[in-house]
Amino acid sequence: MGRQISDSITRGPSVSLTVNDVPVTACAGETLAAALFANETIVFNRTHSGEARAPFCNMGTCFECQVRVARPGSSTYRWLRACVTQVEDGMAVRTGMRLDKPEEDGMAVRTGTRLDTPEEDGMAVLTGTRPQAPEEA
Ligand code: FES
Q1: Which residue among 32, 37, 64 is best mutated to probe the pocket of ligand 1, counting the most ligand atoms within 8 A of its Cβ?
Q2: Atom 3, ligand 1: which residue's CA is nearest?
């Protein structure tokens, strides 16, 4: 997990979500952007040319922080701004998706896997998708 300020901070109860199919914990009341940063996500989405994007304004204005999110109980992924979306227990999140064609031509890359047991504790990153108009939240 990434570094978090802990002195004099009262955090909400733990919630569970997945990021690129990897189980992640966050604290109720946190934004999705904070939870993703805490879990070392640095590429939130990609432009049509594949350029990596990440939060810039952190106040809902720039749309650089968009990630694909399926709300709890839904299998439909929609673009949401991570900086103004609170984490929810059971949320599924995909990062690194191309804004213009998030669902097609994806390439799954597994990083952070153990050399001796690669199928047990890796992190999946979806990237390399082709252009398409984004599905609006
Ligand atoms: S970081 Fe600018 S809208 Fe989220």
Answers
A1: 64
A2: 60
Which residues contact ligand 1 via a Cβ below 6 A?
55-58, 60-65, 81, 83
**Strand residue runs (E) in 3-130:** 14-19, 22-27, 45-46, 52-53, 66-70, 78-81, 92-94, 97-98, 107-111, 123-127
- Domain topology for 14-127: Ubiquitin-like (UB roll) (3.10.20)
Question: pLDDT tens digit string along 23-75?
Answer: 999 999 999 999 999 999 999 999 989 899 999 999 999 999 999 999 999 99
pTM summary value: 0.72
Where do the structural domains in the chain lie, given as residue ranges?
14-127
